[in-house]
Design goal:
The complex is a heterodimer.
Chain A lengths: L2 H49 L17 E6 L9 E9 L4 E14 L2 E10 L1 H53 L11 H51 L5 H31 L7 E4 H11 L1 H6 L3 E6 L5 E4 L1 H17 L6 E7 L2 E7 L26 H13 L1 E8 L2 E8 L2
Parallel strand pairs in A: 6-8
Antiparallel strand pairs in A: 1-4, 2-3, 3-4, 5-7, 8-9, 9-11, 10-11
Helix pairs in contact in A: 1-2, 3-4, 4-8, 5-7, 7-8
Chain B lengths: L1 E5 L3 H13 L3 E5 L2 H7 L7 E5 L1 E2 L2 E2 H11 L4 E6 L4 H9 L4 E4 L4 H15 L7 E3 L2 E4 L4 E4 L2 E3 L3 H12 L4 E3 H9 L10 H16 L6 E4 L3 E4 L6
Parallel strand pairs in B: 1-2, 1-3, 3-6, 6-7
Antiparallel strand pairs in B: 4-5, 8-9, 9-10, 10-11, 12-14, 13-14
The chains are: A alpha+beta, B alpha/beta.
């Protein structure tokens, strides 16, 4: 959820809740106030009626200014019950409906005659007033909320502008490896953020640079002595006075130094992938990539009499990755399928939407399949193969968030590469 | 046939000089940037081998300088830097080829020949060995004036052997030269043997004597003189 959406939602729910509670309280208070106003008015009327009570005839309803209805009854009571307020419904013939009235009931004695008096007053005008005021208030609240919403957007945009800029710059850091330096900040927290980011990315950039230099350096430092051994061996091989046993020794040295240099360059490559030094991305058509590698490996395939079966269900499948790493991944998977095949075996290539399946005939693994993608694992029957090819494949897959799975059934090894989105 | 070698590792320099001198080249040595700049104009070099990590200066700068000074020379970078970007950078600086350390000396010789052919002879050269003659530009091979049909790989292999005539070339160096990254990691170099066998058969069928000797299982020697 975006920050703006989240804050807008929070403001909306909180203020709605708040205004709902406030609205109820406001309505109740208004209602009570109008009720006590009515009661006071009825009290005033009571005095007016009491003053002139002897002028009225019993059981006669007289209209007086301010009084909607009045009833007076003769009644002899021993005790004055005091005044009582109440609400009642009365039928209004003019409008053909019942209406609510507020009344005051009291007992009055004039001379020796006792009267029970009820003065009625319609609540319709005050109810209407309360209704209108409430409606007005609701409207105001809605307008207010809308205003807050719009204001929030503007305030949000201007307040968080630098923050979003910082995010953009941080995103670029992945590729540029340049320290993130933000402009002058007038908000204290952002100023802190700016400083922290600057220190952090400076250190990251420095680490990255040093690591890169270190890898570069190590490669150089290792490759040079290897180059020396390699060249000296080759010179020795040219020597005229070497016997069979010396040549055997030289061959062993030659084979080992070649393995060692291959190992060194592969390890360097793994380190480079782990250091995320491959950030170039381009669209690569998988079927074209496969076909190109099959062509390059044609001799090895023919030599072992291997048959390649292609079933491209998804012709247009595209990988979005570094060209070199794509070559590395596909090349190593195919090389693996050839190297661990049997004479005259099969390789089956299948592309389906979002996945690639490479199957090859071959004897079962001589070790736990969990270890297949880890470094330095190899089949004991194979020599000279350091088994680094598959760990390279795994590293490339991890780098691009692809999923690679291995399974063995029916005397066939199968590698399933899935592109996750 | 002068070759300039710029390399700071004395031992490696030594090996390259020995091997190239066996091939009949004369070598000028430079161990650092400044020495290299000094001897840059000394001869009209056929080829210059330049290391990129040099004391006293950047090898790439040297490549640019060498390219300006000696437009007719071939330049091969020999470096431990092996990323695609670094290779492109090297070739853009003016190098004709890029060889990653550690390399086979036989591969170096083959590349020196190939670069020299491209820059000096403008390709119009005939390579010959005994009764074999090869036109590298046209990708054709003749035995006693009769054309022999060879695949691209077989022709490349023949030219590699011819460049390293009278030397023992290892199976690994043939695999690396012809197949590059696709050459290793199979546990055996049988495919080299198979290809060489085909090449020998085709040449012999055309009436060529077998110039290839198997040397103790370590590699092969291509020479007119069959006695080891």
């Amino acid at each position: 959820m975006k920050l703006l959406t989240k804050s807008s939602l929070l403001i909306a729910t909180l203020s709605l809740f708040l205004f709902f509670i406030m609205g109820i309280i406001f309505f109740q208070v208004l209602k009570n106030m109008s009720m006590s106003d009515l009661n006071r008015e009825l009290g005033d009327l009571k005095e007016l009626v009491e003053d002139h009570i002897e002028n009225y005839k019993a059981n006669q309803i007289i209209a007086l200014p301010g009084i909607d209805s009045l009833s007076i009854e003769h009644m002899e009571l021993d005790e004055n019950p005091g005044e009582v307020f109440g609400d009642t419904l009365m039928y209004d013939a003019k409008e053909d409906q019942y209406k609510t009235y507020r009344f005051i009931q009291f007992y009055s004695v004039k001379g020796d005659a006792g009267f029970q008096v009820k003065i009625y007053k319609s609540t319709t005008p005050t109810d209407q007033l309360v209704e209108r005021v409430t409606l007005m208030m609701t409207l105001m609240v809605i307008l207010f909320l809308a205003g807050i919403f719009i204001l929030n957007r503007f305030i949000f945009a201007s307040l968080w502008k630098d923050f979003f800029e910082a995010i953009e710059k941080l995103k670029q850091f992945e590729t540029s490896k340049e320290p993130v330096i933000l402009g002058e900040q007038d908000i204290e927290e952002f100023e802190e953020l700016k400083q922290v980011l600057e220190v952090m990315t400076r250190r990251l950039a420095k680490d990255y640079k040093e690591l890169k230099e270190y890898t570069d350096h190590t490669t150089h430092e290792l490759q040079t002595p290897l180059a020396v051994i390699k060249s000296k061996t080759e010179l020795l091989i040219q020597s005229e006075n070497m016997g069979a046993s010396e040549m055997k020794c030289l061959q062993a040295i030659n084979t080992s130094v070649n393995q060692l240099s291959r190992l060194n360059s592969t390890l360097t490559l793994i380190t480079r992938i782990e250091n995320r030094q491959f950030t170039e991305k381009e669209e690569i058509k998988l079927t074209e990539l496969l076909d190109r590698h099959l062509e390059l490996l044609e001799e090895h395939i023919d030599l072992r009499g291997i048959k390649v079966e292609k079933s491209y269900q998804d012709e247009g499948m595209v990988l979005f990755m570094d060209q070199g790493l794509a070559d590395l991944m596909i090349g190593n998977l195919l090389k693996n399928a050839i190297a661990h095949n049997i004479e005259g075996g099969n390789i089956i290539l299948e592309t389906r939407p979002g996945s690639l399946l490479i199957r090859n005939d071959g004897p079962p693994l001589g070790f736990d399949q969990e270890e297949l993608f880890t470094r330095f694992v190899r089949d004991t029957k194979q020599t000279g193969n350091f088994g680094l090819g598959l760990s390279l494949v795994k590293k490339v897959c991890e780098h691009y968030n692809f999923l690679i799975k291995y399974s063995f059934d029916n005397q066939q090894h199968s590698f399933n590469l899935t592109l996750k989105d | 046939m002068q070759i300039l070698i710029v390399e700071d590792e004395a031992s490696l320099m030594e090996s390259m000089v020995s091997y190239l001198e066996l091939e009949g080249f004369r070598c000028e040595k430079a161990g650092d940037y400044h020495t290299a700049v000094c001897v840059l104009d000394k001869h009209d070099y056929m080829c210059m081998l330049i290391d990129l990590n040099l004391p006293g200066g950047d090898g790439l700068e040297l490549v640019k300088l060498a390219r300006e000074n000696q437009t007719e020379s071939g330049i091969i970078i020999i470096s431990a830097r092996d990323t695609i970007e670094q290779r492109v950078e090297g070739l853009e600086a003016g190098a004709d080829d890029y060889l990653v350390k550690p390399f086979h000396l036989s591969e170096l010789v083959a590349r020196v020949h190939s670069v020299a052919r491209r820059t000096r002879m403008k390709g119009g050269e005939v390579l010959s060995f005994g009764v074999i003659s090869v036109l590298p530009e046209e990708h054709t091979c003749f035995v006693n004036q009769n054309q022999v049909e060879l695949t691209r790989k077989e022709l490349d292999m023949l030219m590699f052997l011819m460049a390293n005539r009278n030397r023992v070339v290892t199976k690994e160096s043939i695999a690396d030269y012809l197949w590059g990254e696709y050459g290793g990691g199979y546990g055996s170099y049988d495919f080299v043997y198979t290809h060489l066998k085909n090449l020998r058969r085709k040449l012999q069928d055309a009436g060529c004597p077998d110039y290839v000797q198997n040397i103790y299982g370590i590699g092969y020697k291509f020479s007119l003189d069959k006695s080891p």
